Amino acid sequence: MGLRAAHEALAGKIAVVVGGCAGHIGRGVTLGLAREGVHVVACDNDREGLASIGAEVEQAGSTVSAHYADVADESSLDAFWDEVAKQTDRVDILIHVAGLVERHLFAETTRTLHARDIRMNYDYIVQSCLRGLPLLRASGRGASIVNFTTIEAHRGAASYAVYAGAKAATTNFTRALAVELGADMIRVNCLASDTTPARASNAALAPEDFARLAELGSDALAKSIEFYVPQKRPPSVEEVVDGVLFLVSDLSRAITGQTIHVDGGTSASLGFLDWPEGDGFMPAPLGGTLKRMFG
């Protein structure tokens, strides 16, 4: 199937996007689907985003039914799925974008924070998949689920321990569910991003981290990305959305149970940074950088 045919095949499909009305990535996913002619049922806990997403989707050439839901609350998410079932007799695409990340040393966390991280990054996805499964099976023609995970699911992310564990659970849940639903032609995949515009807005760094960066000037964070991301820049929202569109289109019709890393190469480097002062790619700085730091 060619690229044009694969994208034309998306037109008229029905997608549910959990966390699809606000934030750079969630809103971008909803608008990206709309531009392909997909009809979207979305939920979010951001009321400003809910109020404005409709007009943007109409401009993109499709329709959206936007609902308030807080995925941290089981009853709120159930109420959203009750509404989905009232509106449509099938779902072709289910995307879970909602999530939460904060930086904490594990010794400084609490059981309340643990429960929140697990709920927001794993448990709600399990609940939503279970609620959505009858509608995903309804057409008999297959469907696609995309769960957002992260590079932190694949490495020892110190100061993000419970978050990373929850995202790893989502990743392996995705694999297992893909095997179970393979005969139904319901594909289940993950999209793992890394440094994207959503990370800062989700408080991935503590306030004191942002304060230190601010003291160094506006170019400091961009310069650090050049060390960290092999492509020397983070993926844009549009590039993350392109990854989603690939996974829900027929271009990936034989791909299931996989994690697609849209990260500019950071998952491939796995700790090899491009150090300055001539040191190049190494897991730790060499003489040039060390001399600059301590000389």
UniProtKB/TrEMBL annotation:
Protein name, per record: SDR family NAD(P)-dependent oxidoreductase
Keyword rRNA-binding: no
Origin species: Novosphingobium rhizovicinum
Matches recorded under SUPFAM superfamilies: NAD(P)-binding Rossmann-fold domains
InterPro entries to which the protein is assigned, alphabetical: NAD(P)-bd_dom_sf, SDR_fam
Family listed: Belongs to the short-chain dehydrogenases/reductases (SDR) family.
Keywords from the named record: Oxidoreductase
Alphabetized GO MF terms: oxidoreductase activity
Known EC number: 1.1.1.-
Name of one Pfam family that matches: adh_short_C2
This protein's record includes keyword Oxidoreductase: yes
